[in-house]
Amino acid sequence: MSERVGASVAEGENTIEERHNGAMWELEQKLDQSMDEEANKLKIMYREKGLSMWMLLTLSFQSLGIVYGDLGTSPLYVFYNTFHDGIKDSEDVIGALSLIIYSLLLIPLIKYVFIVCKANDNGQGGTLAIYSLLCRHAKVKLIPNQQRSDEDLTTYSRTLVTEGSFAAKTKKWLESKESRKRALLFVVLLGTCMMIGDGILTPAISVLSATGGIKVSSPKMSSDIVVVMSIVILVGLFSMQHYGTDKVGWLFAPIVFIWFLFIGATGIYNIFKHDTRVLKAFSPTYVYLYFKRRGRDGWISLGGILLSITGTEALYADIAYFPLLAIQLAFTFFVFPCLLLSYCGQAAYLVNHKDHYDDAFYASIPRSVYWPMFVVATGAAIVGSQAAISGTYSIIKQAVSHGCFPRVKIVHTSKKFVGQIYCPDINWMLMLGCIAVTASFKNQSQIGNAYGKMYGDSDDMKGLGTAVVLVMLVTTLLMVLTMLLVWRCHWILVLIFAFLSLVVELSYFSAVLLKVNQGGWVPLIIAAISLLVMSVWQYATVKKYEFEMHSKVSMSWILGLGPSLGLVRVPGIGLVYTELASGVPHIFSHFITNLPAINSVVVFVCVKYLPVYTVPEEERFLVKRIGPKKFRMFRCVARYGYKDLHRKDDGFENKLLTNLSSFIRIETMMEPALTSSTYSSAFSVNYTQESRDELLRNNSNHNNNNNNMDMFSSMVDYTVSTLDTIVPADSPRNATSFSQNNTVEEEEEEEDELEFLKTCKESGVVHIMGNTVVKARNGSWLPKRIAIDYVYAFLDKICRENSVILHVPHETLLNVGQVFYI
Hints:
- The protein is of the alpha/beta class.
- Among the domains are: about 325 residues; about 190 residues, no CATH class.
- Helix content is about 60%, strand content about 10%.
- Strand 1 and strand 2 form a beta hairpin.
- Helix 12 packs parallel to helix 17.
- The longest helix has about 35 residues.
- The radius of gyration is 32 Å and the shape is elongated.
- The two termini are about 55 Å apart.
- The N terminus is likely disordered.
């Protein structure tokens, strides 16, 4: 009998406990809800203004100096690198020309300009832009900080897949395992790093191509002079970048425009003067005949043919600077025809002058225009590096927003076009890298080989082709996923695109691999270092977010402290920055358990980057109240796209407080009169010392479990003894301050909340930020300890602080230190 009674009592206690836990969970959900409702209120129509025809033509002209410099200077060295052992049969020239024609047709024109460039994220290009599209259409992002409210953004465009379709199966396959998400991100970062490597090598090679041409007319000139001249030009080139893409484009565009006119006109002249039969190269039959005659040598020569399409990936990355239609018009109706005419003209000349394969471009120029052409060619070769530099700025900005690259300064250089940016930190790093590569050329043969771009005898340049092809292969893989998940193309169309792209690109890849063992370590080492930096930073970023998630404080614990939070509420506004869009961050509990005071108004601020190109200013801030009105606690989520910048004159703090005031005003107008009293009375009924102690015990147990898991440790041990420093409401130490706070709060209830907020703002705003130190856990394997304790620690030390990025005044900043182990 006693056993039955005991069992009944135990069962009753369990039921009461379950009800209590359920009630507390429901209360917490009510007091800290998601931002869906606020997002729906803010949703507005947002459309970009259309461009007039004159503006479109103007931008098409400017794009010549930014986008097509590298691709446009390829005629300087393609035939030399294709036939660096000499031309044995004139039919080989026609076969090589046929390969160049169809390479330009299939890769830059059809694949990139008319297919890949359409896979832009509202004007943003590059592998990371495609990754953003995929993150919106599938749950492949490794940091799960997206909310339902984010999908209500007017710029958060996405399409839904049909259940049971091939796209739905692909989406489910990608989302099912974390390893597949990591593999996808690795592929994206690999393509990005190859582009960064190209941003270092291309300027060095282009400038050396220009200055190395001087030795054609002055063979006795010292090689050291050529190297010094190249370095001076590089310093000047990078020093001009801070003027912005708009001004640089106006400066460089006329040079490239004249260059394309010159090579197009010279091509027409050579075709009609030397041999019009080269036009039969437009027949793909000559591609087959070329490989049949030359065999393995013909296959290896694809490395030289590949030079005709280098700069194509920079074209895709640079679409952020100009509208897609402007780039399509410039390439289709001007760049592409001029390139074809130039290659056809050189081929016509080589058919009758096979011995001039090593200087086909300059040898085919009429003597009367040789020196003007030389000057323009020199300028165009220098400009050719601008596409790689501008593309590097764009992809670095995207990588920073995705949490895959250390925080660097981003400067907006145009009031008209948001996508035109400048990264001073990256700019000087690129300059130093280019100078180092340029200074490594010591003798005449190396400079001559640099003029041949990479496939002469210069071992340092042979890996660039591998980097270029790898970026193209990465883009093809991402485009397959984009066509399936975003465009929802039929799988047969996707298969045709993948097959044609891979046939061409894998052919080039197999050819350049035959040269890697002879050199090419420079671009590969640059890409490897960039990949290490991005991988370590992204890994630590994910772990820091997981730390925030695991260690966040229960709202029940906060409510258990009462309206005063067990502290003295001093006048002013405290902005507590956190990675979390919901929940109370650990730094806040760490702060209030070690300091005796907190501001009268507390706002938890989450600066959040979404996989969208921009967030309209009207939809940037979401504001929500946390808990009853007496607590005066709010949450504000500031949302940014990877195209958005934090400007010093933006007034982030003022905009945040303005949105907070608007929220309070709207809330006062719309809420029922008894909402506040309902919250307060409902809570005060359950607010007893017993329930408060229980909440404290539950919270301490939760944090002790986290410590046992060795997930993190605070700079001050976050244990039960620390929590005990929060003095209960009825203790002698806090009795006076608590009663005084209650009196003050009763008086504040009579005041208008907006006036109270204004008074607090005048008293001062404090920015509370977490200064987290990341360390490898004891017992971690050696590579992990090196990556976290040395690589990440170094990067975190030299990169810009969040307070600097957000332009927080130093005198209002309060850092809360903490350490966690991964």
